[in-house]
Amino acid sequence: MANTGADSASGQRSRPTIRDVAARAGVSKSLVSLAFTDPQKVGPQRRELILEAAQALGYEPNFLARSLARDSAPFVGILVVNLRNPIFAEIAEAVRQELDLNGEYGLITSAAITDSDDLPNSYGRIDPRVVRMLQDLRPKALIVVGTVPEEEAMFRGIPTVYASAAPRPNTEHSSVRMDDAKGMELAVDHLVSLGHTRIGFIGGRGGAVSAGRARAFITEMESRGLEAVVEPAGFSEAEGYRAANDLLSRDRRPSAVVCVNDISAIGVLAAADDAGVVVPDELAVVGFDNIPLADLNRISLTSVDPQNREIGRLSALAVLELLGAQGTPPSESLITPDLVIRGSTLAHRPQEAPPSD
C-alpha cells in the first residue's frame, strides 16, 4: 500500500513522495515527474489530476531533483569568493536584487577557505568541493564576486560574469569592475595636492586586482616624476599592518600611503598608532573600496569608492544579456570611481564659531 503521508512508527508524519502522488492520481511516476518538470507535455486533464493529488497530499517537488532533470537549474549562481571583505556582500545583494527585478533569482554561496596565518595566501583558496557542487547543479549562469586565485577553479560551459574582479585573459568571461587606473589617479592626485611627494603603495599580492592596482600606482607616480615605493602585501589587515611596519622603519619613510583596499588600510592605521605616528599629520592614508567601516569616526579613512552597488547591478544585467542572446561576446565594463575624503588624509578643522551679537 502506498505511503500517503500517514504517521510513521516514530510518531512523525512522513513527507509525501512522487510515488504517493502517482498512486493517488492513478498514473505513473514518470508522468508525475513530467507534469512538474515540463507540464506542457502532459494533457490538461491528467495534469489537473496530478496537481489535485499533489495538493491533497501536501506534496512539493524536490528542487534538486527538478534541477537535475533539466539542462540547467532555474537559478543564477552567485559565488562570493571571500566573505571577509564586506564589499562582496554589498555587491552580491545588489546582484540578487537586480535579478529579482527581472524575474530571476540567485543562489549565493562562498568558496574560499582562508588562512590568516599564511600571509601570502590569506586572501584564500577555492574549495574544489564547492566548485563541483555548483557544476553539478548546473546553474543557468554564474556571477563570481571577487578574485579567483586558482585557474583550475574556473567554470567552463557556464555563462559567467566576474564582479569587482578581472578574469584571466583566456577564459572568455565578462567582467564588471572599477576602473582601477582612474581610482589610483584620484588617490595620487589628492595626496600630491596636499604636498606629499614621498608616497608608498601597500599591495600587489593576492590576484589580478591587487597586481593591477600596483601597476597603476607605479604609472601615476612615474608620470609625475616621483619615486614609486611599493611594499608587497595582500588584502588582509594583518598584511597591511606588517607592510606599514616595514615602510615606517625606513630611513626615508613615506609621508603618505595608498593601500590596495580598506581592510589593509585599517591595518596600516593600527601600525601607525603602535609606532606613535600621527595620522594624518605624519602619515596620510588612502584606501580602496569605501567599506562602511571607513566612515566610522574612529577610523575616518579616505577611500576610493568603486560604486559597489552599481557593479552588482550591472553584473546582473550582463548575465541577463548573456542568457538572452546566445553567442554574446565577452565584455568588460569599467565603472568610474569617486574619492571620499575623510580624516586619514585631512585633519578635521572645527567650524568657526558664529559671531556673537
UniProtKB/TrEMBL annotation:
Presence of the UniProt keyword Kinase in the record: no
Residue ranges that the Swiss-Prot or TrEMBL entry lists as coiled coil: none
InterPro entries the UniProt entry points to: HTH_LacI, LacI/GalR-like_sensor, Lambda_DNA-bd_dom_sf, Peripla_BP_I
Domain called HTH lacI-type: residue spans: 16-70
Organism from which the protein derives: Brevibacterium casei
Alphabetical list of Gene3D superfamilies matching this protein: 3.40.50.2300, lambda repressor-like DNA-binding domains
Gene Ontology molecular function: any one: transcription cis-regulatory region binding
Keywords: DNA-binding, Transcription, Transcription regulation
CDD domains: HTH_LacI, PBP1_LacI_sugar_binding-like
Name the record gives this protein: LacI family DNA-binding transcriptional regulator
